[in-house]
């Protein structure tokens, strides 16, 4: 991915410049070009690879939620972890996130899974891997994206004064293990997947705890309630 080829908020562009100039990024770009040359469908579309960063400027980051890979079904992924495009059925893990929100902060259920409302308030919805081949989960792991998103987390850790990191599952907890807990709040819980949500994700109260921390630091809390109509974003 050549730096000149992407649309990216200026704060991120400046801090991540070394990543775009790195050898691993050149190899990743070549891999993605070859995937498309071979006729593979890659999600999300190219203009949305960095959507999480573009919607949530570095200076506005208050919360980081880490995912793993984009959804690999048609019409789902649009660059934000756990989020799907309007009109797509809410995925099981997000259903469980909504359940926890309801008991924690009185969230009212909505019939969509479009989370841009959070991203625009400073919630960085970051996947570890930013692309995937259609119908092939984890197909772009180990190609270089993990290096890039490690760098994103390091930038947040170093540049932002007080951020809440919501780390759900062992993968996210390991990836952000270096976060400075003297400045940031690190919240850990099992993944909200139906396979593990009952082992401690339900009842973790991460959303109210995040807002309490932000208020204590003199920052605006997050409005976790999503609009009924995703087109309001």
UniProtKB/TrEMBL annotation:
GO terms for molecular function: uracil DNA N-glycosylase activity. The active site is at residue 69. The keyword DNA repair applies. InterPro entries: UDG_fam1, Ura-DNA_Glyclase_AS, Uracil-DNA_glycosylase-like, Uracil-DNA_glycosylase-like_sf. Keywords: Cytoplasm, DNA damage, DNA repair, Glycosidase, Hydrolase. It is an enzyme of class 3 (hydrolase). GO terms for biological process: base-excision repair, AP site formation via deaminated base removal. SMART domains: UDG, UreE_C. Residues 54-214 form the Uracil-DNA glycosylase-like domain. Belongs to the uracil-DNA glycosylase (UDG) superfamily. UNG family. Excises uracil residues from the DNA which can arise as a result of misincorporation of dUMP residues by DNA polymerase or due to deamination of cytosine. This is Uracil-DNA glycosylase.
């Amino acid at each position: 991915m050549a730096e000149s080829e992407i649309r990216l908020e200026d704060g991120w562009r400046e801090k991540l410049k070394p990543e775009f100039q790195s050898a691993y990024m050149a190899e990743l770009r070549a891999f993605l070009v070859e995937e498309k040359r071979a006729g593979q469908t890659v999600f999300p579309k190219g203009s949305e690879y960095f959507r999480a960063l573009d919607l949530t400027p570095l200076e506005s980051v208050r919360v980081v939620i880490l995912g793993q890979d984009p959804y690999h079904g048609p019409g789902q992924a649009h660059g934000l972890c756990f989020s799907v495009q309007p009109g797509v059925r809410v995925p099981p893990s997000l259903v469980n996130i909504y359940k926890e929100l309801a008991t924690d902060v009185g969230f009212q259920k909505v019939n969509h899974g479009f989370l841009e409302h959070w991203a625009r308030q400073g919630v960085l919805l970051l996947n570890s891997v930013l692309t995937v081949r259609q119908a092939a989960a984890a197909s772009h792991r180990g190609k270089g994206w993990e290096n890039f998103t490690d760098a994103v987390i390091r930038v947040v850790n170093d540049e932002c004064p007080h951020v809440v990191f919501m780390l759900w599952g062992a993968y996210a907890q390991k990836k952000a293990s270096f976060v400075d807990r003297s400045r940031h709040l690190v919240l850990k819980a099992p993944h909200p997947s139906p396979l593990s949500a009952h082992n401690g994700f339900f009842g973790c109260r991460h959303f109210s705890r995040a807002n309490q921390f932000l208020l204590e630091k003199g920052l605006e809390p997050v409005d976790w309630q999503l609009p009924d109509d995703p087109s309001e974003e």
